[in-house]
Each structure stands twice: as structure tokens, then as C-alpha cells.
Amino acid sequence: MKRTILVTGGCGFIGSNFVRAALERLAASRIINLDKLTYAGNLENVSDLNGHPRYRFVRGDICDAETVGRLFGDEGVDTVIHFAAESHVDRSIEGPEAFIRTNIFGTYVLLEAARKSWIEAARKRRPENPVFLHVSTDEVYGSLGPDGFFTENTPYDPRSPYSASKAASDHLVSAYHHTYGLPTVITNCSNNYGPYQFPEKLIPLMIINALEGRDLPVYGDGNNIRDWIHVQDHCEALLAVLAKGRPGETYNIGGNNERRNIEIVEAICDILDEKLGPLDAVRPRRSLIRFVKDRPGHDRRYAIDAGKVMRELGWAPRFSFEDGLRSTVDWYLQNRAWLQRIVDGTYRDDYDRMYGWR
Ligand code: NAD
């Protein structure tokens, strides 16, 4: 089906991977990438798409109702894939306001624009089969003990300002479906890793610090468990949900790869030692690991039961974690200029403060 897709946050980590995958896979569809270019948005992530006949970038804020409304009206948007968000838990603890604004109010602005254009508009101006796909996180479910998995029926129990703002946005999306009949679908996905991830997140942060011989700060005892999925597997799952997901439904997406944080940091050290040699004759990179004061409210374990999306939509993750981590380390090694420009860029002060890089 030929769609006009508004992707929000398409210059970020997952959004940029998705735009690339969607242009390739949805050959008849047009993509409009609406991104504010916050510290996490990087036009370089999509620079290879400049000039693509079915792609257009618009710099703008999802909280700006006029910009969003104009895009729906002028472009005939019939599909929304909503990634734009403030996404880093540590930043939400330091300053929740931007999270409340973008993640909650921004989602509301998009929902209102969709409602006006898809539900309230005169019948002949309404698009056929519109879809509003809201991309969310498993962090809305809170923290698990040693056993069990998050399912689509797990009660919400967010613990950080980030997860609380995402939970609020999920509830709004669901309310627009129940109240106005907006054809929404929600996906809750586990931790992503892969190319183009901003180097404040665990895996790229550890890669860059280990490359440069800097300390590798690990929260608490390092035994917090996350369920990791390669970003390209996540994007494939989103394409499956777009094609076959049922309005009003939620789909949990995960890679079935539970790992303790410390295991991941050690694996990155070992891969880099193997590829580049140790730091010097007596120091393997594991010697850079430092346990630091735990993050307040740090959730202990996340694990996703992705059975529904696998059974109902026929999706399955393709990357093994070991191969995915190796290819991710390779990508960062091959794209050191990309990494360096971020580190040298305007975010330098934040990096200094949060990670002691200079
Ligand atoms: P990211 O921080 O890398 O990218 C966010 C993008 O949104 C950036 O390009 C930024 O410029 C843009 N943006 C932020 N505020 C905006 C605004 N007000 N208007 C327009 N654009 C704005 O995030 P990510 O890791 O790619 O995550 C994307 C989405 O997926 C988020 O909604 C996040 O909650 C969700 N998610 C992420 C993960 C993960 O592991 N990264 C897991 C599950 C779900």
C-alpha cells in the first residue's frame, strides 16, 4: 500500500535506522521526517538519504501544533510512526521538564492532529486505513524480580521520570483509540543497540571509553539485567506491526537476550582487546571498569515476552546478541569520525559533566 508516513524523531538512533529500512522496504511510500534536532538528533544519521525522491526532512518540534497540523493538511499524512522523545533516563533524573513536554505534550499534539485530519475531517478528505504507531518502551512496566517476563497485560509501574512520561504518552494514545476511534497501535520494546546510537547510552559509551582508555563507569554492582535487541530487528518488527498490527492493540518487542550490564561491558572490552590488542602489555581493557554509585530508582531487571508479535505477526529477531554486539563494535570502529564529531560538538559540556570526559 502506498503510504505518506510522518516519522517523528527520524534523526535519532532508532528513527534513522527505521527511515532507511522503510524507504527500502515500502517502495511506494513517502517519508517525511519531522525532527527538532535536539542534542540527540543528528542529521548525519540520515545524510545518505539527501536527495532521495521519496524522503523529505522537516526541522520542527512535535509540540508545535501549527507545524504538525500543516504537515497533516499539506502532505496528506496517513501514517504516523512516532519515535520523537527525550530518551535518556539519567537526563530525566537531572531535569524531567523536557521529558514531560516532548513525551507527553508532544504526543498529545500529534494525536490531536491525527484526530482532526483522520476522524473529524469531511469524509472525502479522510485517508484510507490510517495508522498511528506509537513507539514506546518496556520501562513503563517497572522492574522484574529474578523470574517472569513483561507481557502486554503487565500493569504499568514506571519508576523514572523518563518511563513515567512514556507511560503517560501510552495512556493518551490508548485513550484516543477508545474515545475517538483513532486507529492507534502501541509497541513496547526492550533496550536497543546497534549503529547510530548516541554515545551516552551503555553500549556506545563503553565502546568509546574503552577505545580511548578512559574509565568504564558501571552503576551499582553491575548486575542489573536488560533484554537487548538489535535496532534492525526492532525496525523489522515495527514494519510488521505497520503492515499487520490490529488497531487498539499493544505489541511487546524484545530480542530474548537478557544480559547483566557487567557482562556487556566485559564483552565489549574483550572484543576490543581481540581486535586492537590490549591497552598495553599488562592492561586488558577490563581493568578500566569502575563501579560507581547506583542510579536512583535503578530498575533491577527487564525481560520481554515477545510471543504475541511473533505468533500473530510472524516476526522473529534475526541477530544473535554475540554477532550483533560484534558488528556494532565494528560499526563504531569504522565510524570513528561520526563518533568524534559528536564528542567534539556542542554537547561537550554535558558530556564533561555527566561522564567526566575532559
Ligand atoms: P534518540 O534520543 O536517539 O532520538 C530521539 C529523536 O527525537 C532525536 O532525533 C531528537 O532530535 C528527536 N526529538 C526529541 N524531541 C523532539 C521534539 N520535541 N520534536 C521533534 N523531534 C524531537 O531516541 P531513540 O533511542 O532513537 O528512541 C526513539 C524512541 O524509541 C523513543 O520514543 C524511545 O522512548 C523509544 N524506545 C527506545 C529504546 C532504546 O533502547 N533506545 C527502547 C524502546 C523504546
TrEMBL record:
Belongs to the NAD(P)-dependent epimerase/dehydratase family. dTDP-glucose dehydratase subfamily. This is dTDP-glucose 4,6-dehydratase. Keywords: Lyase, NAD. It comes from the Bacteria. InterPro entries: dTDP_Gluc_deHydtase, NAD(P)-bd_dom, NAD(P)-bd_dom_sf. Its cofactor is NAD(+). GO terms for molecular function: dTDP-glucose 4,6-dehydratase activity. Its EC number is 4.2.1.46. GO terms for biological process: nucleotide-sugar metabolic process. Gene3D superfamilies: NAD(P)-binding Rossmann-like Domain, UDP-galactose 4-epimerase, domain 1. It comes from Desulfoglaeba alkanexedens ALDC. It catalyses: dTDP-alpha-D-glucose = dTDP-4-dehydro-6-deoxy-alpha-D-glucose + H2O.
